[in-house]
Amino acid sequence: MQRPARLAATLTLPLVLACAASPDAHADDPPQRFTERTEYHGIQVERLAAGLEHPWSVAFLPRGRFLVTERPGRLQRIDRDGSATRIGGLPDITARGQGGLLDVSLHPRFEENQLVYLSFSRAEGRRDTVLAVVRGRLVEDRLEDVEEIFVQNRASSPGRHYGSRIAWLPDGTLLLSIGDRGSEPMRAQDTRDHAGSLLRLNDDGTIPEDNPFVGNEDVLDAIYSTGHRNIQGLVVTPDGTVWATEHGPRGGDLLHRVQAGHNYGWPVVTQGLDYRTEREIREFEGRSAAGVTPHAHDFGPTLAPSGLAFVTSERFPRWEGNLLAGGLRAERIRRLTLIDNEVRHDEELLLQRIGRIRDVREGPDGHLYVLTDASDGALWRISPQ
Amino acid sequence: MQRPARLAATLTLPLVLACAASPDAHADDPPQRFTERTEYHGIQVERLAAGLEHPWSVAFLPRGRFLVTERPGRLQRIDRDGSATRIGGLPDITARGQGGLLDVSLHPRFEENQLVYLSFSRAEGRRDTVLAVVRGRLVEDRLEDVEEIFVQNRASSPGRHYGSRIAWLPDGTLLLSIGDRGSEPMRAQDTRDHAGSLLRLNDDGTIPEDNPFVGNEDVLDAIYSTGHRNIQGLVVTPDGTVWATEHGPRGGDLLHRVQAGHNYGWPVVTQGLDYRTEREIREFEGRSAAGVTPHAHDFGPTLAPSGLAFVTSERFPRWEGNLLAGGLRAERIRRLTLIDNEVRHDEELLLQRIGRIRDVREGPDGHLYVLTDASDGALWRISPQ
Is residue A302 scored above 80 in pLDDT? Predict the structure, then answer.
């Protein structure tokens, strides 16, 4: 069985600052603070920091500070006054297409070990890239002892569908989503290829012995679930339930309740259509199939899912146990009410108020935090009014 | 078997001009002409007439003129220059809550017989209202020979859930939707009550002998399908397929492909939740049941459906065969791609651009026409760019 290589990450600068190709938000200069009525809560929305270049992920440091990744390859610490301090010691990052510096996640025992995890794309040869994960200790404004704990086992040239959200299970292992990379032939049903899967790793990158396919020669040991196109929202609830939002083809954006060892079907089972022809994609066999776990929710018209949060906060008592799913193209958050792990209601929040939503998180203080994807992106806080 | 009463409609004026309670559009003064990029067509959107008070329905007169109902009780002819001329000869209309003058539809052979059909609510006793339909001949600026061809068989006091779209089947009979009236106990499963049904009538209000329940003593002869909460979008395609959009409880707005004799389940089968508690409604038994025809599409987050159009126009070749479903609260049109009568894709158009959408129609000229619901509502035309 393969083990992810561990490389001493090179710490050389400058970082790659490739021009990002995605369209910017078209919300024209939203106010820095506004209120919105929703079905149950009046909310106040406040911009905490601006001038972030395509921020991708936010993590919560002690004492009300934040770590925010910028996709071109920078990690910023945001202090309570909104000022940003660049963190040094990052690995070489190749920002191309949808790639760059992506997720940031703190070890569950960060206060003891100061470990920060980063997912990112990096060049492999002249044309290809791979998705990789490093961890390092945050010492003042620098990552120290950076080690690559995961690298994708097959490089490819399209700079897209990296996935790459990180979330922690209650047992201290981590889940890492990895997109299908958008290369031909499609790879999400190839269980000897990391692409198009959700992976489960120990905190040092080794593979848990109780992973669902350990002992199955046909499937990589790291794989937790298969048949994913591009999971970009991932959250684990306090009871260990795993929810993921994933980009489908046109109109096929989905929510999954991910269970160990399950196959979610992509590309042979999908709810979406070919982007160009608006007909079935070539590999389509049906909207369901034996051996394929059905999706939990179909987001209908384009959402383009991004960060996913699960509300536990007592600050929002009527939202407790709801999912909040960010949308890039949709420029909104979908609030999903779950009853017995089934989505039973859906509300739109912040509709075109602040632009493309890249990340949604519940903070340790019970407020909700949102990143907007733009060349001048921002960090926002949502509080009850 | 009952026959709808035929009353000589009273022609007295003034009409009831009750203040409408619904919130106005919050699109602040949209431009009178703008363009929008969509997935396949660039569209131009142009306001043809403004100053319409809660317009509800538009019909197409010869030579590029329109008939538009205003819910407080006026019927307007809109000429090519956007000017409005009020049509006389209307019946007594009681505009209360969601009621008033609602749908307008021309007889399929209007050019021969000048027959105009209107659905509306009118008082019955001191507190109750019923839904009724009249037809009359349009002679210059006046309806002549007005006769009531249908009246609901049970009055009730809540001024809501009237339904009341009219659409014509290829055989020259008409379909009329009638909401459940929102009274307790719920009536949509009571097949001796018009409320909560789709009805099929001859053009003079008599009942076609081949209606699905004729001969069944337990079901009114006029009933075509049952178990509806409030159908407010209704269209028949050239091949006779019937599509209807209907208001559910919270999050339960649905599209149905309506088939003769079928039961669509409300209120025992529903996809939505109680508006107040965000839990199942009291009558809920399940999301599906034997004997209940499943919905064709769940609109997910609030749409608040209104007019429904089916695109046949060669002006929009990539939209041919699509449904366009208007949304009031959602302030958008949902474009639905059908493959083998199944919804396979969904796009949002005019998102919060012109306000609450009350009606969507394809005109005989192949352009698309939209009414916005506001105290200062408008008629808009959508053309390819």
Answer: no
Cβ atoms < 10 Å from Cβ of B7: 14
Chain A to chain B Cβ contacts (< 8 Å) = 59
Residues facing B258 on adjacent strands: B242
Cβ neighbourhood burial of A368 (10 Å; 0-12, 13-18, 19+): buried
Show the tokens assigned to A175.
């889940």
CB contact under 8 A, B278 and A348: no
Distance CA A271, CA A174 (A): 28
Distance of CA A224 to the CA centre of its chain: 16
Per-residue confidence (pLDDT) for residue A277, from 0 to 100? 85
Give me the residue label for tokens 């021009």.
A19
Q: Where are the beta strands (DSSP E) in A11-164?
A: 33-37, 42-52, 55-61, 65-70, 74-78, 84-86, 101-106, 115-124, 128-139, 142-151
In the predicted structure, residue A308 carries a pLDDT above the cut 80: yes
**Chain B residue at shortest CA distance from A347:** B301
- Owner of token pair 């509502």: B377
In a domain? residue A6: no
Mean of pLDDT over chain A: 92
Distances (CA, A) of B352 to A333, B59, B81, B287: 16, 24, 26, 31
Query: Per the structure block, which two tokens stand in for B146?
Result: 């007005």
| Single-letter amino acid, residue B10 | T
Q: Is A302 on the interface with B (CB under 8 A)?
A: yes
Cβ atoms of residues B341 and B315 within 8 Å: no
Q: Which residues of B touch A278 (CB under 8 A)?
A: 39-40, 318, 337, 345
Q: Which residues of A touch B299 (CB under 8 A)?
A: 300
Calpha distance A371→A25 (Å, rounded): 12
- The answer to the question of residue B7 being in a domain is no
Q: Please say whether the beta carbons of B196 and B178 come within 8 A.
A: yes
Q: Tokens 């106990």 label which residue? A: B185
Helix (H, G, I), strand (E, B) or coil at B63: helix
Q: Is B161 a catalytic residue?
A: yes
Could you tell me what percentage of chain B is helix, strand and coil, using 3-state DSSP and rounding each to the nearest 5? Answer: 5, 45, 55
pLDDT per residue over A69-111, tens digit each? 999 999 999 999 999 999 999 999 999 999 999 999 999 999 9
Beta-ladder partners of A384 = A43
Count of structural domains, chain A: 1
Q: What is the ipTM of this complex?
A: 0.75
- Tell me the two tokens of residue A352: 């075109």
Nearest CA distance, A1 vs chain B (angstrom) = 41
Per-residue 3-state assignment (H helix, E strand, C coil) for A45-57: EEEEEEEECCEEE
Q: HSE, CB side, 13 Å, CA atoms: give it for residue B132.
A: 27
For the stretch A48-67, what's the b/e string if a residue is b when 16 or more beta carbons lie within 10 angstroms of its beta carbon? bbeebbbbbbbbbbeeeebb
Contact B344 A300 (CB under 8 A): no
Query: Rounded distance, CA A16 to CA B173, Å?
Result: 68
CB A159 within 8 A of CB A99: yes
Q: Is residue A369 a part of any domain in this protein?
A: yes
Give the Å distances, CA to CA, from B144 to A233, B87, B200: 62, 11, 24
Sort out which chain B residues have CB atoms less than 8 A from A301's CB and list them: 334, 346-348
**Residue B80: how many other CB atoms lie within 10 Å:** 10
Q: Is residue A361 part of a domain?
A: yes
User: How many Cβ atoms are within 10 Å of B77's Cβ, its own excluded?
Assistant: 17
CATH number of the domain at B333, please: 2.120.10.30
Question: In the sheet that A84-86 helps form, which strands lie side by side, from edge to edge?
Answer: A55-61, A65-70, A74-78, A84-86
Of chain A, the end-to-end C-alpha distance in Å amounts to: 53
Q: Can you give the residue range of the structural domain that contains B333?
A: 12-21+29-384
